Amino acid sequence: MRAYPASRRHPQFNRANLEASLEEAGIAYLWQGKALGGMRPSYADHMQTEQFQIAARALSAIDGRACIMCAESNPSECHRSYIADWLVSHGERVTHLLELGRQQEHPGRLV
What we know:
It contains four helices and two strands; from the N terminus they run H-H-H-H-E-E. By secondary structure, it is mostly helical. The longest helix is centred in the middle third of the chain and has 11 residues, at 50-60.
């Protein structure tokens, strides 16, 4: 799920390529457009919008695992940390996939 699924440097992350490779691996591709995407002056303000709330609830309702992707590698410097906070505060478990083989449980903060 990326707001802007395109990359000149990494074409495997372009929307069509990503969707095809995930489908091949048996993973559903749920594109939410800008509803959960970053690149906002105040992501915290965006989280109060109906658009965000609907998309976050849809993400939370996925049966099984879901993955949020972003070009920013460090989740603490990315809008994913806000989404993770929201998910944890709504009873979900969030694990950040960091560099190869490294994971980190999201501690969660009150949103």
